[in-house]
Amino acid sequence: MGSRFVIPTEPQIPLQNYLLNLVEKSDRKESSVYLLGVHPFVQEAWNEIIACKEKTVGWKTIIGKLGIHPQGFYAYKNGKKGISVQMLYQILLLWKGYCSKSEAEFNAKWEKLYQSNFYVSGSRRRQVTLPKAIDPKLAYFAGWICGDGSFGGYKNHYLVKISEKSVPQLERVLIPLFQELFGATPKLHRMYGGGYAINLNSKPVFRFLKNVLGLKVGVIPTFVDKLDEVNKRYFLAGIFDSEGYVAKKRYYLTISQAKHNFLLEIQRLLAEVGVVFNGPTTHTTKLGIWYTIYSDKKQEIRNFSELINSYHVEKSQAIQTMLIKMQKV
Hints:
Blueprint: E1 13-14, E2 34-36, H1 39-53, H2 59-64, H3 70-77, E3 83-84, H4 85-98, H5 103-115, E4 119-121, E5 133-134, H6 136-148, E6 149-154, E7 157-164, H7 167-182, E8 187-190, E9 196-201, H8 203-212, H9 229-243, E10 244-246, E11 253-257, H10 260-272, E12 278-285, E13 288-295, H11 298-307, H12 313-328
Antiparallel strand pairs: 1-5, 2-3, 2-4, 6-7, 7-9, 8-9, 10-11, 11-13, 12-13
Helix pairs in contact: 1-4, 4-5, 6-9, 9-10, 11-12
């Protein structure tokens, strides 16, 4: 991203171990979420199990409890194959039982594994990384998704999609954010009827955003109220950049949405960081009813610029132009 659109990586709020949240009951052996690079933990657990039980329990019996072929287990142990989250958890449960480990020791091992460096993949084997902390980049991204993203889960497709009229915004801000947060590059394409979109087909990213962060379009996720003020401001910047509008001929900033309660929540969050937006006002068109909150006072707009600002290629420039005009009056 250009220097004008650099979003910091501090402060960070650690996320609790969420690996099991990446798994759902519908997952099967061939269609789960897999970890790559955790084989040292499998090797260590296996060596300890054998040391504890080699004289009383055969290794084939131990592997048999996992319901897999010995060759499959050794592929996990040697790092030749990614291991599903649930299989890894089951191996550590065996380690706990056979080696008489306490609950505290088990939890410490699970946490150490979570904090290690590994890649995550789905059945398509596309490797990604997942954040282990909320920072301004992730807060901004989450705000954008809540404002105007979309999720599409069907069969073996797990799409995370962002629609946007501005190609520069997609290329200079949002695609780099995908790359920095998840180590993956979404596809850019022209949408039918005009406009552009980027989408990423990744079960781990899809599950992380929906199951771990609880993101849903048009809904403020519960984690936002627990954010520090800095991260909360970047979340709101993401909301504004996805759903906001900067008027060209008057001092007027708006955020529009079809969900009334969503705008009330945004209004509350804005007030918490020192920015006042009025409304909501109601608009009725042939397409339905939608709502707007707005800021039309010079000082309110200055506050917005200083406390939240925009990281949108066009909207940020429009705000700067507005501020310059305000200084001349």
